[in-house]
Every structure is written in structure tokens, then in C-alpha cells.
Amino acid sequence: MTDRSDSIGIVQPHDCFFSEGIRLHSGQILAPVSIRYETYGTLSEAKDNAILIEHALSGDAHAAGYYTENPNEKPGWWDSMIGPGKPFDTNRYFIVCSNVLGGCSGSTGPGSVNPATGKPYNMSFPVITIEDMVDAQRKLKEHLGIQKWLCVAGGSMGGMQAIQWGIKYPDEMDSIIAIATTARISAQSIAFNWVGREAIMDDQDWNGGNYAEQPEHGLATARMLAHITYLSEESMRQKFGRRLQSSEDYSYAFKKDFSVESYLEHQGSRFVERFDANSYLYITRAIDYFDVAGRHDGELKKAFSKVTCPFLVVSFSSDWLFPPAQSKELVRALLANDIDTTYCNIESSYGHDAFLLEEATLGRMLSGFLDNLYVKKGEAK
Predict the structure, then answer these.
(1) 337-371, pLDDT tens digit by residue?
(2) Four-point Cα dihedral 233, 239, 245, 251, nearest 10
(3) Active-site residue 340, yes or no?
(4) Is 202 noted as a catalytic residue in this protein?
(5) Does 14 participate in catalysis according to the annotation?
(6) How far is Cα 207 from Cα 57, in angstroms, rounded to an integer?
């Protein structure tokens, strides 16, 4: 049973439909497009208190609150940060979170029906990019009647989207918060994504993407591999060590002897229940292609030349998926363009997952940054 005393309460998803669709980075037109989103708080009369929250790879639009009165229901994925009196204070801000294009939680993705065939797109769905996700969100922004975001914020892949917002639409937000993320992913990250996709596509049940039932083994394996990158050696040592699962000695067979093995199997099986294998392929490929310097001769400084709003950049000491060095590279590019930039590397043993677990420390940073922004915006009126 979860404590709901400080929660936003019962929420509901909404769908925004665009019959004209969008032109993708690849040049293709994807139409129609539907975007699933949720909102928390109240949009001000001037419509100047809206904050866009971006989710990570396996996230969705359900960032806070609950759908039912069921006491055992888990809240939205960032409920600790969104709500009355929380860093993203719904007494003050209007919070928007949407499921990304290519997702499997309400927005148009490979599992959606292709109007040309009447059947799911599956692998005929066009390859998408982080930029395409942002372009779809911009249509949602227009649908909501919001001229300018007070802030665009996200962690991991969500941070990539926040960065892309700043580069492509620099006049449409007052600030950006980029957490545990990068301006261009490394060869190592691309390699992990590749192996995960291979695990899915090598599953005989994947059937070229035309599966009736999830390719469970492949998708679970992909999730287990990815989950290892979200943790740190220290957090795994503290949580599992070399502890055996259910016996006092080795089985001397290829069973789950160690606690960490059972933990990963559990993570994989849970993921299969809520995520689509083809969406995993498309979203990880979008992450691979993310490189904001790519159109600027590989120079990050040039990529941020049109950005004017302040940035808050946060990294975590034990994050080896998107390590502090990548955040510092981002910060140097921002400072080289004289952009007001606040940077903090939080000491944490949680690894990449720290952006979801270091609630107190991260929360204080977010609150301070947004409070200062809110006061300055009020003084400028």
C-alpha cells in the first residue's frame, strides 16, 4: 500500500490527434499522429507557468498521480518530484508530460494501425529521431495554447529531448533542465543498444516484427542488459554482492545461483508486461542517432549558438552510461556561448538510475533553480 498523502491524486490521460501528421527528420511524412499526454496543476491565465517534463526510454506520459483508488497501485514514474509543494510544484506550475512518438503507451508508434493497410505498422513504421519526438511535442504545445514553456526538463533520454528543444526552438522556453544525459551518445552506448536490439530480433517469436505475442525472451534479455548500465558497480555490490539466491552452496549447474541473477530476471519479466518490443527497437535507434553537433561540423559550441535561455545541468558521480564527463562537455559548449549555466555533479552510488532515486538532493536543486526562475519572471512583468 502506498502513501498518497502528498500526491497530486487521481489523474487521467488525454489524447491529441493531428490528422496532418508531421514531416520526419528522414523526410517521410507520418500521418496521422496521436500523442498521449497528462497534465497536473492549473495553467495560468497568461499561460506562462507551463513546464514540459520529458521521459526516459522506458517511461510514458504518466509522470505523477494515480489512475484509480486502488491502494496498491504505483504512482507515476516521477511522482516524488511532481505535486503540491514538490520541486515541480503543482500549486505554482502547470506540468505537461507526453508519451514520445514511437512509444507504446498511447502515442503513435510501431504498434499503431497504419491507415493505408488497416494493420499495425510494425516494422513498416518509419525510423524516428529525438528531433521528431520534439516536433510532435511542439504540436501538442500549440494544441494547448502555450506560447512558451517556463521550463523543459528531463533525465536520460528525456534530457536529450530537453536539449533538442533548446537547439531547435530556442525562443520557446525560459529554461532547460538536463539531468543525467548527453549531447551525443558514445560508441559504448550505441554498442549496448545494438546488442539489445539483436537479442529481440534473434528471438524466433519476433517474426520480423510481425508478432502476435511478445518476443518475451529477447525483450527481457534486452532489458536485463540495459538495466545493468543503469546501475553502478558500487550499488550492485551493496545490494547483491556475491550473495546466493536460495542455497548455501553453488548448484554446479547453469541455474540462478546468485541474487543478482534473479533480480535481473525479475526486471526483464516485468518489462515484458508493459513495453512493446518494436517500440524498444525504434526508440533505442533514435537515441543512437542523437548528436546535436552532427549538423554543425561536429562542434558542440556551434550547435548551441542560438540558445539563449539558462540551463541547469546535473550529473551523478557513479553514472557510467552518461558519465559526468559528457555533462561537462555539454556545460563547456554552453559556457562558450555565454549561456547562463548551472552545473552540479551529485555524489551518488546509484549509477544512472540516480536521477530517479536521489530525490532529496536533486529535488533541492530543481526547487532552487525553478524558484529563482519564477521570481525573476515575476519581477520582469
Answers:
(1) 999 999 999 999 999 999 999 999 999 999 999 99
(2) 30
(3) no
(4) no
(5) no
(6) 23
Q: Which of 7, 156, 232, 349 is catalytic?
A: 156
| Residue 297 CB-density burial (10 A; 0-12 exposed, 13-18 middle, 19+ buried) | exposed
Give the sign of the dihedral formed by CA 302, CA 303, CA 309, CA 315.
negative
Q: How far apart are CA 250 and CA 261, in angstroms?
A: 13
Considering the domain boundaries, does residue 250 fall inside one?
yes
At position 360, the amino acid (one-letter code) is: A
Q: Are 178 and 80 in contact (CB under 8 A)?
A: no
Q: What is the mean pLDDT of the chain?
A: 95
pLDDT in tens, 130-165: 999 999 999 999 999 999 999 999 999 999 999 999
Q: pLDDT (tens digit, 9 = 90+) per residue, 268-290?
A: 999 999 999 999 999 999 999 99
155 grid coordinates: 533525465
Selecting among 279, 319, 327, 349, the annotated active-site residue is: 319
Number of domains in the chain: 1
Is the pTM of the predicted complex or chain greater than 0.85? Answer: yes
* CATH number where 225 lies: 1.10.1740.110
Q: How many residues does the chain have?
A: 381
Active-site annotation holder among 58, 235, 348, 352: 352
